[in-house]
Amino acid sequence: MIGVLFQAWAAFSPLASIVGASGIACVLVAFLGAMFVPERLKLPLIGLGALLIAGAAVWQAAEAKGAHDLYVAAHQAALRAEQLRAEKAEAITRTLAEQATRERAAARADTLKLKELTDALARDPRRDGVCVPRDLSRRLRAL
User: Fold this and answer.
1) Alpha carbon separation from 138 to 14, 47, 113, 126, 131 (Å, rounded)
2) Ordered DSSP codes for 74-126
């Protein structure tokens, strides 16, 4: 509602309204001031009033058309920006989904490799063997 009022106010021309009111005043003076206005001025006053009213109407129509074109252009720019934002968001979402899929596959491969290593160690016959000679292990424990 406020947007419509704002657009209507942007399309309104106070100067065109003043000119239109002046045209109406000229016509009213020509018709209602029959006693005070000489006969030779009535027709030019009516013509001037009609010209002012028509000029004000054309001026107001041009103001309204300009405001309408401005709002249409602003709306189209906002739509293009929103479409661009949506396309970028879609691309980011797609990239993140692909990255998550790759990371999940890498994690599965690492888990499988770790399982293979632990299985190989479990079956190794030298599993309980000595890694370090006894005197060296004693020295290390003494530290």
Assistant:
1) 102, 123, 34, 21, 13
2) HHHHHHHHHHHHHHHHHHHHHHHHHHHHHHHHHHHHHHHHHHHHHHHHHT-TT
The pair of structure tokens assigned to 86 is 């949506």
Question: Do residues 49 and 23 make contact, with C-beta atoms less than 8 angstroms apart?
Answer: yes
Condensed to tens digits (0 to 9), the pLDDT of residues 27-69 reads: 998 888 877 878 888 889 899 999 999 999 999 999 889 888 9
Q: Which distant-in-sequence residues (6+ apart) come within 8 Å of 121 by Cβ?
A: 127
**Among 15, 119, 6, CA closest to 68:** 6
Residues contacting residue 111 through CB under 8 Å, at least 6 positions apart? none
